Amino acid sequence: METGRCHEQEQVEVVGKAFVDHYYNLFDNDRSSLASLYQPTSMLTFEGQKIVGTGDISCKLNSLPFGNSKHTISTIDSQPSAYGGGIVVFVSGSLQLPGEEHQLRFSQMFHLIPTQDGSFFVQNDFFRLNYG
Amino acid sequence: METGRCHEQEQVEVVGKAFVDHYYNLFDNDRSSLASLYQPTSMLTFEGQKIVGTGDISCKLNSLPFGNSKHTISTIDSQPSAYGGGIVVFVSGSLQLPGEEHQLRFSQMFHLIPTQDGSFFVQNDFFRLNYG
């Protein structure tokens, strides 16, 4: 791998990890703020249910039937996407819900698109629990 | 959802399912032909290992240390991507390997980009086994 591509890949991984840390920190501690990561074009498929746009996605995430959650991340894989400056992030981990003895395993994927202010928003989001 | 978007979503799901059927049929029955689904820009992250380009991806898939495999698909979620005409497909399922008593659970994600001949190729591919 030549230096330029190597550097690009490092940057992609740094952004992917920073996004994942930020996303699950908000999810577990300030879930209503997740809305700031989506835009009107954003799509979420949550356990097979399709939701489009900041408002409906935020509504879905905030109406999940549990208060406190704790995500533990196992793997983060990131690649540059075909969309200029975009990043695809693939996450696996486990989710501890209040009052539940066992953690739930999950996989989630984000397609991040750069914003004009140098940040990223989530264009595509897929969440699935992994049943053993 | 108005009619146009509803139709687009249906088309995206039809393409996503057709691709998934085709991909795992090739994987299980004619693995060397998977090369036809990738291009020089394609990226695969396989259990955390990053591989770029048709040749290296094909080499990786064909050198996996098992002959016959049988994938059973549990869920297919598809969304249009930000890249014109592209489709993001998120798959979960299980993998039966020869001589193994238990199936392995996996998650895989494909970012499909349209080709000039009206087909699609895989630009981004992530594969992870799900450990329980």
From TrEMBL, chains A, B:
Q: Where in the cell is it found?
A: Cytoplasm; Nucleus; Nucleus envelope
Residue ranges annotated for the NTF2 domain, each copy included? 15-129
Q: Which InterPro entries match?
A: NTF2, NTF2-like_dom_sf, NTF2_dom, Nuclear_transport_factor_2_euk
Q: Which GO terms describe its cellular component?
A: cytoplasm; nuclear envelope
Which superkingdom is the protein from? Eukaryota
What role does this protein play? Has a role in nuclear-cytoplasmic transport of proteins and mRNAs. Facilitates protein transport into the nucleus. Interacts with various nucleoporins and with Ran-GDP. Could be part of a multicomponent system of cytosolic factors that assemble at the pore complex during nuclear import.
Q: What is this protein called?
A: NTF2-related export protein
* Organism field: Salix brachista
